[in-house]
């Protein structure tokens, strides 16, 4: 291939001067072709589009890489760069509108920072989400260990005679502890083996929640070492306390059937209760988190964003056809379709991950105000398709030169106008040209609600920013087939104009929803985790109820003989355990509130943390716990007192 010619877009001619090895699948740099700046300088189409020397012009795909010399720290270079800015701009002040600061991002952290667009097709991972998933896994493991401890100690009396006989035959306490820990290890080992077998199916089940490229390759040495360490740790944590309890039984007491003579006020009772409280602290935390995340997602998906997002289809035409009239031919065909209300051409829709920014300035006669100005490109129909609210002035016109701009209210206020309408007719220095402000629109959200509203202007598109067609559909009737018919018609028209290219489209509201895909995945995972937490916690509570009723078997029999009703006995047995659930609610509420506040800080615009989030969690958990306890307490309450009072 060396020396061979490759032609892009029927006009951009390049020659292969080198071949690099295939990039690994786990890289964020997913390019296939590398075009040098020397080539860009020679090709007018590329030079005009890239505008490499216009440092005031940037987009979300702009990247600037620095390779540091040895023995040089990134912190030192970052400080020197910012000192240089201050030296060249002595009038610039901290927190002013023209304040700029360089921040060096380590290449190793690029995968975790969504602010850097590397054409990785959404492969950016969120560190907070990953840490959250690890925390969920840890909590589930802790719940499982607590559950095992409670159930094992609740059934300890069933093995009491075995332990007594082993001690009578000469087994030491240490030998019994080792034996019991070994039994726990075997159970844990089988659980790990089952989990390994299920992992490929689990990965498929949760494929939408896992970053692309993640595979169930469990034969890697670090994973094997982790599984071994995990097995040993879980075995010890879940098996040590039951082993100590069981091995402490005295043969004489066991053989006399006096194992359960202790009361709930024994020195070990507090630990079992503490473990149960811990379980319900975790379970209620997950319930509260799930409810709040769902509430925030509902908030962002239903908030007024400042533009119309429903019933709009967005089509991106091929870049290679930029210099042809094919886009206009396609629009003419689409315009004849009865399902289409209005069309516009330009660049990105109002809210998008992809952005373009230019340096701008405004002189009010006393001082010059500089700032970055985010730019959207659209023809006069652009404002009508998305139904922006025009506060003052007029829309763009096809007869306007490139020196006309519609700005948002935020930019008008930034350059000093208390009433945004007063900015109409003023001139700003934009993209190195004096540009007239012909209209002011109300603010809208240019990106997700994680980000704030930024100064913005809308201008007529040049030839490099006409590729995207924005189509507003008419409302559907009762049968609801109009949009489906419209998409089929669009596909047919596309194939007639671009037979070599695949037809790709998306509904704008679905694109907006994808802004919060990570939160939606988190909500789904939290729902699964919450269900597991409640199930495991209820099993642990059931174990404690079994333990308590076993200790109080004779007491229950005496109370029934003396006339206690089933309801009274159920209340007696349940009261203390219900109080444990209420105690967990009191403990978890401030913790959950603090954690929710921290998570909500990821959003510039967020819902409120309502009191009913906590009330719903506490009430739901209390009801679930009472139903769980009823299985054991009712069984104990209706038991024949003659059996409970009989002594072997």
Automatic annotation (TrEMBL):
InterPro entries: ABC3_permease_C (IPR003838), MacB_PCD (IPR025857), Macrolide_Exporter_MacB (IPR050250). It comes from Mucilaginibacter polytrichastri. It is a multi-pass membrane protein. Its main location: membrane. Keywords: Cell membrane, Membrane, Transmembrane, Transmembrane helix. Pfam families: FtsX, MacB_PCD. This is Uncharacterized protein. Residues 135-249, 531-641 form the ABC3 transporter permease C-terminal domain. The chain crosses the membrane at residues 130-151, 176-203, 223-249, 270-293, 525-549, 561-589, 609-631.
């Amino acid at each position: 291939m060396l020396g061979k010619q490759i032609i892009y877009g029927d006009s951009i001619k390049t020659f292969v001067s080198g071949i690099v090895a295939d990039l690994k699948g786990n890289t964020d740099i997913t390019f296939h072709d590398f075009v040098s700046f020397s080539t860009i300088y020679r090709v007018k189409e590329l030079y005009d589009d890239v505008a490499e020397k216009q440092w005031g012009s940037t987009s979300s795909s702009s990247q600037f890489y620095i390779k540091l010399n040895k023995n040089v720290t990134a912190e030192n270079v970052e400080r020197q760069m910012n000192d240089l800015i201050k030296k060249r701009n002595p009038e610039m002040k901290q927190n002013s509108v023209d304040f700029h600061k360089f921040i060096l991002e380590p290449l190793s952290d690029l995968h975790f920072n969504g602010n850097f667009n590397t054409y990785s097709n959404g492969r950016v991972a969120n560190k907070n989400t990953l840490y959250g998933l690890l925390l969920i896994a840890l909590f589930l493991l802790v719940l499982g260990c607590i559950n095992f401890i409670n159930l094992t100690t609740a059934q300890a009396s069933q093995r009491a005679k075995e332990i007594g006989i082993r001690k009578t035959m000469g087994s030491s306490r240490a030998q019994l502890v080792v034996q019991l820990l070994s039994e726990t290890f075997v159970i844990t080992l089988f659980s790990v083996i089952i989990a390994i077998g299920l992992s490929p199916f689990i990965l498929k089940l949760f494929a939408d929640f896992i970053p692309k490229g993640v595979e169930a390759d469990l034969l890697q040495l670090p994973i094997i070492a982790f599984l071994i360490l995990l097995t040993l740790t879980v075995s010890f944590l879940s098996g040590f306390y039951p082993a100590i309890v069981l091995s402490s039984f005295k043969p004489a007491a066991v053989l006399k059937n006096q194992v359960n003579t202790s009361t709930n006020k024994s020195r070990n009772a507090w630990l079992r209760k503490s473990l149960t409280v811990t379980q319900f602290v975790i379970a209620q935390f997950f319930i509260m988190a799930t409810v709040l995340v769902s509430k925030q997602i509902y908030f962002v998906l239903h908030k007024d964003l400042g533009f119309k997002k429903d019933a709009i289809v967005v089509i991106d035409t091929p870049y290679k056809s930029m210099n042809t009239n094919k886009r206009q031919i396609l629009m003419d065909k689409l315009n004849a379709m009865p399902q289409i209300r209005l069309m516009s051409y330009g660049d990105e829709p109002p809210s998008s991950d992809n952005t373009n920014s230019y340096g701008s300035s405004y002189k009010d006669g006393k001082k010059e105000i500089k700032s970055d100005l985010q730019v959207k490109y659209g023809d006069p129909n652009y404002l009508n398709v998305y139904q922006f609210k025009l506060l003052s002035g007029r829309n763009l016109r096809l007869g306007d030169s490139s020196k006309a701009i519609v700005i948002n209210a935020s930019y008008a206020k930034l350059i000093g106008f208390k009433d945004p309408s007063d900015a109409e007719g003023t001139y700003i220095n934009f993209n190195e040209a004096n540009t007239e402000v012909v209209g002011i629109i109300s603010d809208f959200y240019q990106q997700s609600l994680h980000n704030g509203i930024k100064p913005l202007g809308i201008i007529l598109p040049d030839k490099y920013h006409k590729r995207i067609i924005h189509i507003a559909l008419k409302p559907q009737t009762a049968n609801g087939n109009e949009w489906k018919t419209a998409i089929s018609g669009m596909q047919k028209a596309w194939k007639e104009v671009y037979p070599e290219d695949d037809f790709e489209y998306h509904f704008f509201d679905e694109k907006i929803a994808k802004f919060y895909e990570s939160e939606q995945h988190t909500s789904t995972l939290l729902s699964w985790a919450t269900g597991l937490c409640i199930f495991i916690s209820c099993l642990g509570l059931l174990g404690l109820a079994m333990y308590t009723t076993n200790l109080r078997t004779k007491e229950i029999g005496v109370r029934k003989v003396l006339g206690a009703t089933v309801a009274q006995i159920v209340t007696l047995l349940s009261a203390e355990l219900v109080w444990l659930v209420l105690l967990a609610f009191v403990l978890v509420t401030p913790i959950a509130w603090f954690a929710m506040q921290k998570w909500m800080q990821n959003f510039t615009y967020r819902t409120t943390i309502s009191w009913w989030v906590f009330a719903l969690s506490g009430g739901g958990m209390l009801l679930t716990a009472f139903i769980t306890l009823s299985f054991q307490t009712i069984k104990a309450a209706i038991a024949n007192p003659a059996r409970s009072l009989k002594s072997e």
